[in-house]
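Notes from the pairing session

We agreed to fold both candidates in a single pass and log them together. This is the raw record for the first candidate, unedited. Please don't reformat it; downstream parsing expects exactly this layout.

Candidate A
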Amino acid sequence: MGDVPGNRYLSGSAAEVYYNGLKILGCTKISIKITVNREEIQTGPDVDTKIVGLKGEGTISVTRCYSAFEEVRREIVAGRDPRGTIVTKLEDKDAAGGQLERYQIGNVALNEFPLEYEKGAAVKSEIPFGFTPTDMINLDEIKQ
């Protein structure tokens, strides 16, 4: 297998993000990570680790064009803990075989609702969220 030509490297330019089935307009970035929680275990003279849990968290960055997630904020203020589903879609026309990558992330809990305006600047927000890693499903993957 030789070198991969530059046009085969993925670009997020055509990526889309959906929350509860609605496309997040103005989404400029999504970051998602799963952290493996480990506990130290001593086995003879060695110190090893054992997985004791998983934690899922992420951030959605948007250039706002509407009151994003206001409905969720109102639910939380009313004492409810609404959960949602995020679907990400990365479709790069130059991907090998025209494939696309999609993930569905369930049990998403939004954690902050920032509000900041600056004169002469586009309004941007970063909305952090948590999720249970076992509720993250790969729907489509880009293969060689």
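Candidate B (folded immediately after A)
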Amino acid sequence: MNKTAIITGASRGIGRACAIELSKYFEHIVINSCTHKKDLEDTKKEIESNGVDCLAIAGDIADYHFVSSMMKTATDTFPNIDLLVNNAGISYIGLLSDMTIQEWNQIINTNLTSVFNCCNQIIPHMLHRKSGHIINISSMWGISGASCEVAYSASKGGVNAFTKALAKELAPSSIRVNALACGAIDTQMNTCFDKKELEAFCETIPACRFGTPQEIANAVIHLYNSPSYLTGEVIKIDGGYL
């Protein structure tokens, strides 16, 4: 059927796991990352080793003009876009009073504006086919908020509201929009914490451990294959934390 999936932030962690897992079910994969270009190429090579076509495009998806160019390249190469996974994101740990406006804007633009950019550019292609699924990788902090992560929490709360609203807008066109609100996942984003801090946080999780990127990738597959009536949901996958 020549199905195509686009995954942002696919060089490492959750994005990489999603891209590799999706390559087992899709004929074409498009991956993106702003940084870690070598890791992005390594992801591309692993996908291609499975006999799947892969297009890797490096650039900042917080930049609307770059996203416009990226999506044109993607749709020119693989016309039928079936799935968009908005995964790219960054964090900031610290007091809000210590945060600069530049740091605030970077969090909001990378985590939230990028979702608008990608959806805005890909929706017309999905509308033309009256088919498609958008899955946004969010966070449990977008539901409950986290101390010293105000900007990150705000950006993910925005993603959750964006998901619910866009789902209502696109449901009449048979396009689904859902989000996964991830809990603590074992990725490079946690390297800012030392071992004792990570162990202390782990003790507060009912599942007694961090989740894995592969578990999120598996959840993306399950959500993509879920009934077409399931849309507008923000599904927690947090080991029972919330």
